[in-house]
């Protein structure tokens, strides 16, 4: 048994939100967004996926530490599901800021699908962040797509067109789609020249778009100070390197020349989102 269940609370029309450390989590923007929601709504543990079948521990070694009571503890790669049930929002949240496994992706995706079905999730949202040729001084674009044709059409989202080698998120979307679970992907592009450090701007951008689509308040504006400090630190580092400063100016010019994306208002998107879910329940 790979999923260790605890007590499952009564959930109000839950949405499952997933992000995984790894290739699809540049600057920790995606997992940072899920952790932000977990902290904001004081989410509590519901279940966890056993790491033993899914990880090569020579690649991702467990960490040993001493806890507050002086007891030695081993921390294993964790994929724990948290539930936020006191949100005063249209939906409760199921949240997993996990670690991309090395092995048996199909079985892992089946575990996630089983969790979504057992919790009666109305929707699954995957959050991701990828390095991109974008400047740190401009808004970071978030692209949305859905394998669910009707949902993509209603919310003005793209349909996946990529062909080639895929990762865990691609396998998850395929598994969830076959299980007839609506799924949305939101992914932000972050500056490739500062991809290693945590990026609050990428996290804020994902939270803002998630709120726009679902109507669930994320408190993304509370990250404004952290974003300003991050931008100032990066700008200072860039200013001390003439070559880097010249490169960023060129990227800024290219970004300014792109046409602004015309998005529906947040209220319009959230209303369409709720209509889609209501019609799906009626069916």
Low-confidence stretches: 259-265
What's the main sheet like? 8 strands, mixed
End-to-end C-alpha gap: 33 Å
> Looking at the chains present, what oligomeric state does this protein adopt?
single chain
Q: What number is the mean pLDDT?
A: 89
Radius of gyration: 19 Å
- State the helicity in percent bands: 25-40%
Relative strand content: 15-25%
> What is the β-strand count?
10
Task: Write structural notes for this entry.
By secondary structure, this protein is α/β, with parallel strands linked by helices. It is built from 8 helices and 10 strands. An 8-stranded mixed β-sheet has the order 1-3-6-7-2-8-10-9, sandwiched between helices. α1 (29-40) crosses α5 (200-214) and α3 packs antiparallel against α8 (266-282). Residues 259-265 have low confidence and may be disordered.
Please supply descriptive tags for the structure shown above.
alpha/beta; 8-stranded mixed beta sheet; two-stranded antiparallel sheet; 8 helices; globular
């Amino acid at each position: 048994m790979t999923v260790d269940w605890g007590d499952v609370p009564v959930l109000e029309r839950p949405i499952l939100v997933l992000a995984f450390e790894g290739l699809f989590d540049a600057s920790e923007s995606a997992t940072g967004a899920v952790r932000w929601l977990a902290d904001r709504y004081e989410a509590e543990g519901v279940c966890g996926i056993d790491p033993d079948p899914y990880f090569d521990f020579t690649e991702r070694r467990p960490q040993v530490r001493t806890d507050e009571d002086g007891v030695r503890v081993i921390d294993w790669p964790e994929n724990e599901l948290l539930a936020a049930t006191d949100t005063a929002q249209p939906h409760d949240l199921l949240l997993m800021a996990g670690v991309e496994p090395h092995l048996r992706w199909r079985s892992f995706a089946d575990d996630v699908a089983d969790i979504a079905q057992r919790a009666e999730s109305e929707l699954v949202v995957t959050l991701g962040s990828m390095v991109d040729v974008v400047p740190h001084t401009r808004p970071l674009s978030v692209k949305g797509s859905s394998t669910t044709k009707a949902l993509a059409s209603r919310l003005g989202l793209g349909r996946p067109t990529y062909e080639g080698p895929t990762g865990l998120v691609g396998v998850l979307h395929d598994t969830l789609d076959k299980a007839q679970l609506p799924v949305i992907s939101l992914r932000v592009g972050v500056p490739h020249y500062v991809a290693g450090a945590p990026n609050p701007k990428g996290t804020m951008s994902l939270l803002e778009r998630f709120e726009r689509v679902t109507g669930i308040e994320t408190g993304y504006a509370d990250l404004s100070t952290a974003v300003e400090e991050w931008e100032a630190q990066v700008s200072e580092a860039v200013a001390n390197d003439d070559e880097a400063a010249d490169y960023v100016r060129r990227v800024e010019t290219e970004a300014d020349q792109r046409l602004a994306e015309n998005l529906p208002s947040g209220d319009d998107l959230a209303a369409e989102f709720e209509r889609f879910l209501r019609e799906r329940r009626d069916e």
